[in-house]
Automatic annotation (TrEMBL):
<comment type="function">
    <text>Catalyzes the desulfonation of aliphatic sulfonates.</text>
</comment>
<keyword id="KW-0288">FMN</keyword>
<dbReference type="GO" id="GO:0004497">
    <property type="term" value="F:monooxygenase activity"/>
</dbReference>
<dbReference type="InterPro" id="IPR019911">
    <property type="entry name" value="Alkanesulphonate_mOase_FMN-dep"/>
</dbReference>
<dbReference type="InterPro" id="IPR036661">
    <property type="entry name" value="Luciferase-like_sf"/>
</dbReference>
<dbReference type="InterPro" id="IPR050172">
    <property type="entry name" value="SsuD_RutA_monooxygenase"/>
</dbReference>
<dbReference type="InterPro" id="IPR011251">
    <property type="entry name" value="Luciferase-like_dom"/>
</dbReference>
<protein>
    <recommendedName>
        <fullName>Alkanesulfonate monooxygenase</fullName>
        <ecNumber>1.14.14.5</ecNumber>
    </recommendedName>
</protein>
<comment type="similarity">
    <text>Belongs to the SsuD family.</text>
</comment>
<keyword id="KW-0285">Flavoprotein</keyword>
<dbReference type="Pfam" id="PF00296">
    <property type="entry name" value="Bac_luciferase"/>
</dbReference>
<keyword id="KW-0560">Oxidoreductase</keyword>
<feature type="domain" description="Luciferase-like">
    <location>
        <begin position="5"/>
        <end position="325"/>
    </location>
</feature>
<keyword id="KW-0503">Monooxygenase</keyword>
Length: 381
């Protein structure tokens, strides 16, 4: 099975060290363009663009990088509850057309109650997933060309439709990650690819089996992906030294403050990440070559694969053997590490090489619409 390898755009900031301003660098458009173009040239299939109030807007970042890349796909955050599913469908179709079919979407329900409240979303964990299911049902159907009437508990639309379809048919793929039962139920019903954060293989196997079984009950199949950091060097000793260096400026107070902030999240996945390290710099290798140091101060994906190229490739193959075909990697700093990974790890993997999309016409050949959705008479004959 050829593997899809994605990289990460650090729109929340980048550095040589975690938890300190030492070695930090400004993340402006020029820097993000450097990373995106490096990923494009090096053979990464796409880039994940994060979301949240600490990040630049993922949709605008993706749109700005379309003209300076050729093959790279953009995995953009889709946020139920803060936007209408119909408007989100129009935005998704537009981004897909402008990028010539290079748009992917990552459903993010959110886990930080403070941030969600700031965005006007005051639902419990269970209610957010109810709303996410309704949102996604409408979003998918509208993108697939249906005219949708929907009267849900949280969302109601009447006559929702899309006049200009996406390039990818029936619509761009939907990715999603979540560890709760409600999240797995949503994935089984709604998405093409279920993402997990980098837990030990036995824990990942359990989640995959649960989602796969739930999807099968609905007559569906779901693909699987994993989100990990990676620290690869020419030798295992150099890789572990680089891991130690990454957290060399972390003190106990900084770790405690970061963990206290992350503890307010109602995300089951975040709780599972925190349990791997327990807030301590001791015993961070939680599985062979799987290191939990990143999660000491970073929310979300908190583990890294550490080692030389053949060793990390062997660990990747263990995940691939579970059914994972997509790996979303990152490393600090993201520009230099994109090259290290390509040079030291790619030769040991069976990669799915991205192809440059062929040009497609997406402008309506019928001129301006009349009365918002009616084609000129000549175009209808």
């Amino acid at each position: 099975m050829s593997l899809n390898i994605f990289w990460f755009l650090p729109t929340h900031g980048d550095s040589r060290y975690l938890g300190t301003t030492k070695g930090a660098r400004a993340v402006d458009h020029s820097y993000l363009q450097q990373i995106a173009q490096a990923a494009d040239k090096l053979g990464y299939g796409g880039v994940l663009i994060p979301t949240g109030r600490s990040c630049e807007d993922s949709w605008l970042v993706a749109a700005s990088l379309i003209p300076v890349t050729q093959r790279l796909k953009f995995l953009v955050a889709l946020r139920p509850g803060v936007i209408s599913p119909t408007v989100a469908a129009r935005q998704a179709a537009t981004l897909d057309r402008l990028s010539n079919g290079r748009a992917l979407f990552n459903l993010v329900t959110g886990g930080d109650p403070d941030e969600l409240a700031g965005d006007g979303l005051n639902l419990s964990h269970a209610e957010r997933y109810e709303a996410s299911v309704e949102f996604t049902r409408i979003w998918r159907r509208v993108l697939e060309g249906e005219t949708v009437d929907y009267d849900g508990k949280h969302i109601q639309v009447k006559g929702a439709k899309l006049l200009f379809p996406p390039v990818q048919q029936p619509r761009p793929p939907l990715y999603f990650g979540g560890s709760s039962d409600a999240a797995q139920d949503l994935a089984a019903e709604q998405v093409e690819l279920y993402l997990t954060w980098g837990e030990p293989p036995a824990a990942v196997r359990e989640k995959i089996e649960q989602v796969r079984e739930k999807a099968a009950r609905q007559g569906r199949q779901v693909r699987f992906g994993i989100r990990l950091h990676v620290i690869v060097r020419e030798t295992n000793e150099e890789a572990w030294a680089a891991a130690d260096q990454l957290i060399s400026h972390l003190d106990d107070d900084t770790i405690a403050r970061a963990q206290a902030s992350l503890a307010r999240f109602d995300s089951v996945g975040q709780q599972r990440m925190a349990a791997l390290h327990g807030g301590s710099k001791d015993n961070l290798e939680v599985s062979p070559n799987l290191w939990a140091g990143v999660g000491l101060v970073r929310g979300g994906a908190g583990t890294a694969l550490v080692g030389d190229g053949p060793t990390v490739a062997a660990r990747i193959q263990e995940y691939a053997d579970l059914g994972i075909d997509t790996f979303i990697f990152s490393g600090y700093p993201h520009l230099e590490e994109s090259y290290r990974v390509a040079e030291l790890l790619f030769p040991h993997l069976d990669l799915a090489r991205p192809e440059e999309p062929q040009g497609k016409q997406f402008i309506s050949p019928f001129g301006e619409m009349i009365a918002n959705d009616i084609l000129p008479a000549a175009a209808q004959s």
